[in-house]
Amino acid sequence: MANTKETVKDIVFVNHILDNVHGFIGLTALENRIEMLPIFKRLQDISQLGLVKRIFPCALHNRYIHSLGVMHIIDQMALHLKIFSPAERQLLRLAGMLHDLGHYPLSHDLEQVYDIERSVLRKRDTSLKEIFSAEVADSVNKIMQVEAIVEGEDIPVDKIQKPKRKLVVKGPFHHESVTAKVIKSSTCIKKIIIDGIKEGAFDESGRSPSEFSGDEIEDFATRIIYDICALIQGDGDYKYEEVGAFPRYFTAMIQMLHSELDADRIDYLLRDATFSGATYGSFDIGLLLQNLAVRECTIGEERAWIVGVKEKGIGCADQYMVNRYLAYTQVIFHKYTSIIGKMLREVVLWMMNQPGFDFYDQDTVQEIVEQHEITGYYLAFTDSYFFNRLNAINKEVDGCPDDVYYFVEQLKNFRSLNVKSEDVFSGDTCHQKKHIEETDCYKYILELEKKHDFDKVNGLYLFDNKKLTDHVPREIFEKNFKAYNATHKETLSEEELSNGKVPKAELSFDKYSMDRLMDGLAVIPDQEDQPPFLLLDAPRSIMTEMYDMRQLMFRNYQGE
After folding, report:
1. pLDDT of residue 125
2. Alpha helices, DSSP H, located in 292-414
3. Where are the domains of the chain?
């Protein structure tokens, strides 16, 4: 690190870290202190892509440098939008820097285990062949139940999908929730923020920091921490006007860390492409940043600042979305990374449920997170923790089942399973369903469900799929939403009404519409009097035709 100073629009950098993706990343005095905390240094031993590095051997990057990259990108976005004060920029930079403090060892590979419902975490008595086959059947059936909605046609009640809100707080074991708990339970982070307030890093009032009382500074620091956690969790229901420190453009801030066009996605796409050697995630970030815009939008009683691209940036946004899709289908869902991730999951599930093996379960993780500055156990909960426990497994002593232990041996020896056959197909919903019905794999899985003769299954079956976007055009969204509200009204009897029971309220179309706009990749029209809309609603975007594109991956694996 170099001890240099540089001033950029009232943000003073006291240190720099060299990054091979973005070059020198500046650190403010406040960020420099946080970077030196053990809780942040822990991220150096958390692989960004988990076990993907076993297939793409150069993908050795970690959550530490990714977090600094997100901090840098979100600040570049703020500078291009030109609406944020230095104090708001500092808040955004902290949210980007701290957003992954709660990541599990090997990132999402292990998180998928801890995020499973408790009822599923019970000790498994079924074979891995049955478990894998059942998961394939469940995943495929969900796609087969999706009906392509055509304008002008009625939607069968059983085909109506319940609308989803993306900007809501995740479950307690999601890494974003764990991150919020880490930050809120950290006296060190709060002290650094208090020192930052005293030094004027968050000065919004025009008053000198020396004019604030100790209680005022303590309250202000708490508000800043809650703002940071709400940004990290993507909490669209956060009452920032009531409890936050910076309510002015908070809805825009959320999108900059939680949307289809956010600093997190931008950094990991560029970083994964750089380190893996696969260029699928690359795109013109300079052009994308130059075309960023923000506009206030009103839908009914809902009001928010929407961040998106200008109309002339639609081509660059298309490139970004397509390359993101390719990065997932070609790297994250590569035929060998998929099976390695599933092998790891089954081994961890066995370790968590094996009495006396002492692998952290969900409750223990919550405890070590809350006490991370007291016991230090959470600091050691890294990739090394997993590999130490993996290498300690003894089949005879620990009573490890044969099928699970085969996975253990493969992971210990840096091996995967062999792909006997695979069927990879891309298409829209209608073509997907037609293709699935014709595959030998799907027919075989259906037969297994009927006969339950899993001992005769030859190998293990996996099914992965990835969509280009989770959103649909507005007319389809609106048609499905109204159909859902119309068919899911709660009718109460006179007795229930007389007893004071209140019918369930219909879902708010305005709220869900705004959530859709904030979560997706928005376009800001050239005409100032026109409201923002999603990229897939833009006539000049290829997303109008490709939004329904999904890649399906049926695979059968066998051991040596």
Report:
1. 66
2. 314-327, 335-353, 362-370, 383-391, 395-398, 402-412
3. 6-110+168-278, 113-166+335-467+549-558
How far does CA 180 lie from the centroid of its chain? 14
**Which stretches of the chain drop beneath a pLDDT of 50?**
1-9
The two structure tokens encoding residue 319? 């490139």
Query: Does pTM top 0.85 for this prediction?
Result: yes
- Give the model's pLDDT for residue 499: 74
Neighbours of 87 (CB within 10 A): 21
Cα distance between residue 481 and residue 297, in whole Å = 21
Supply the pLDDT for residue 158: 65
| Cα separation, 182 vs 16, whole angstroms | 25
Q: What burial letters (b/e) apply to 250-265, b meaning 16+ CB within 10 Å?
A: bbbbbbbbbbbbbbbb
In angstroms, the CA 103 to CA 99 distance is: 9
Residue 9 host element (H or E): none
Residue 355 has a pLDDT of: 82
Element (H, E) at 143: helix 128-144
Q: What is the pLDDT of residue 295?
A: 97
| Secondary structure class of 447 (helix, strand, coil) | helix
Element (H, E) at 151: none
Where on the phi/psi map is residue 399: left (φ > 0), alpha (ψ -120 to 50), or beta?
left
DSSP line for 360-387: --HHHHHHHHHTTTTT-TGGG-SHHHHH
**The amino acid at 148:** A
DSSP 99: T
Nearest to residue 140, comparing CAs of 546, 423, 453, 472?
A: 423
Q: Check residue 109 and give its pLDDT.
A: 87
The matching CATH number, chosen from 1.10.10.10, 1.10.3210.10, 3.40.50.11270, 1.10.150.530, for 6-110+168-278 is: 1.10.3210.10
Tokens of 515: 């959530």
Nearest to 306 by CA among 4, 559, 521: 521
In the structure encoding, which two tokens stand for residue 259, read together?
């949307």
Non-local CB neighbours of 174 within 8 Å, separated by 6+ positions = 111, 115
Q: Could you give the CA distance from residue 49 to residue 107 in angstroms, rounded to a whole number?
A: 7
Residue 129 phi/psi, 5-degree rounding, is: -60, -45
